[in-house]
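Hi P.,

Sorry for the delay on this. The queue was packed all week, but I finally got your sequence through. Input first:
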Amino acid sequence: MPVPVPPSFLWGAATSPHQVEGNNTASDLWAIENLPGSPLPERSGDACDHYHRWREDLDILRDLGLNAYRFGIEWARVEPAAGHISRAALDHYRRMIDGCLERGVTPVVTLHHFTSPAWFRHGGGWTGADGIQRFAGYVRAVRPILDGVPWVVTINEPNMLAMVAARLHHDAPDLVAGALPPPDQRIAEALIAAHHAARAELGSLASGWTVANQTFHAAPGAESHAEEWAWSREDQFLDAAREDDFIGVQAYTRVVIGPDGPLPADPAARRTQNGWEFYPGALEAAVRHTAKRVPVPILVTENGIATADDRERREYTEQALAGLGRAVSDGVDVRGYLHWSLLDNYEWGSWAHTFGLVAVDRQTFHRTVKPSARWYGELARAGFLPGAP
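Then the structure:
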């Protein structure tokens, strides 16, 4: 049976600034993209030109019947040089917040979504002598424009940030979460400290952070291995949110752990464009796991699928939302669902993987709303999570 949700439930979509805005020239990732012989196959370039076309994108979201938009403030735009705050950038993001509120759309604002100013990385980053203080200073500069924002995400997926840092030192083979080495623990602890410092700067604003939930499943006989694997890569970051106002759950697929680490997916399993197992049950498992570990409200801040087949996008999302409905029926405190993503965008080195509810022409920036988006909007208007298929 369909599961009703309260009128306050957030039905929305998400983006991150570097992936959609374009020309984030003062950021660390822009510098990497544009290195001679860059390890990234493609550049972000103009991206989706969301920096200039955000009004059009908000109109699309509102007209679909969605009531929430998660977007990011780009630190490298706000503070392109150390200690120099751009009033123009702050005004831009305040206009976006006001644009949401004027359209009846709840803004969910992320302060750090993977990218940092290039000067921050050159100065030692999170583990630099003043890394945490630098981040707190940025949050302090942003705080005055956040009035009226009911959900503030301090840092997106700190566990992935720490694991990617470890990968750079251990030459792990790929960026699939389960294949990564344990997080660089110094960076993990610095990120936790930075999160708490940011929450102190935000004061009375409701804040939390998001975790990349990897839905670790234990192969028979590997239960203790899976618990150890999950603690370093996920659970320590969940535990750090115990005093937060909410926690963001972000789930896409699962990772099966054997005695020696991650096991490959069944060769017969369906795969998404980026090679992940098609596993919509990841969301329900992630929400239930998080609820058991962290006694705070849950906001699903990312969930979606990389696919060129929009019928598959609807199939995946419908099954994921049905699982979310089962969790809600069992009393899990879920306050909303934000689909990843609103737009087909730059997926950290490649344009090949399309997660969006809306297609974007790379040459003209023309937006085309996909049928899955219209289906999702109708679901939001009805106010029911779908029943189990």
